[in-house]
Amino acid sequence: MEFRQLGNSGLKVPILSFGTGTFGGKGDFFAAWGNTDVQEATRLIDICLDSGINFFDTANGYSSGASEEILGKDGGAAAPHARAS
Predict the structure, then answer these.
(1) Is there a domain that residue 63 lies in?
(2) Hey, which residues are catalytic here?
(3) In the predicted model, is pLDDT for residue 84 greater than 50?
């Protein structure tokens, strides 16, 4: 995975990120995008981490916070793969 500097922060981030807008699928808007549950999210996160993607786009507005909750539930499983660059 190719990494680039994030502005003047001193952090390097992968050139690809993974959006979690489908995690949870709460509300009409996000339900139209998808309804990824914890088990499927874990599988997708593992695929990302195995590919070197450790930059996840999430927001408390995605599915009324369900996206962040689901991403957090996988946090323990993802932690051994996570690494700061």
Answers:
(1) yes
(2) 62
(3) no
Range of the domain at 68: 19-78
Say if 33 falls within a structural domain.
yes
Whether residue 5 lies inside any domain: the answer is: no
| pLDDT tens for each residue of 29-77 | 888 888 998 899 989 998 988 888 888 998 888 888 888 888 887 654 5
User: Using one digit for the tens of pLDDT, what is the confidence trace for 12-27?
Assistant: 888 999 999 999 888 8
Distances (CA, A) of 46 to 13, 23, 26, 30, 32: 17, 15, 23, 22, 24
Identify whether 2 is part of a domain.
no
Contact 17, 27 (CB under 8 A): no
Print the SS3 string covering 8-33: CCCCEEECCCEECCCECCCHHHHHHH
Number of domains in the chain: 1
